[in-house]
# Entry
Amino acid sequence: MISTVFVTLAVALPPASLSAELALARSTGAPPVLSTSATLALASSDDTSSFGVGEWASVLATTTDPARFVGEPATLVGFVAPGEDGTFDLTRLVIVHCVIDAQAASVPVTVRDVDGDLEPGQWVEVSGEFARQGGGLVLQPASVQAVAEPGDPYEY
# Structure
């Protein structure tokens, strides 16, 4: 009887998504292990319109020509994670094979143009262009809007 109740609950209740806290705990500071050669090839073809946080994180971590992406527009959805030097990290969990290998991928976003306070773990949509900051690139937002957690919060 108890096993029937457990199985019924397991089937009836949707699984909870991995949390922002888990993503932050799993973050190593290194770029996620993605198909970087394919991502860079696609980025070189000037078609970055379909890029999510994972692809952009890969490009930003591996490009040898950051100036190439200055002014490149992007609209990305992710959750807020603490960043460095006037930025927050727009973060998503990227799944390569299964949820066990989920890795945090992040794009730094400047916060000087953002109105209001952003809370760690809050889901937002950021639209803007990439700009140089220090030795790398950041997404300089034209807009940052709070959004609900997507039905599928992962990237693949």
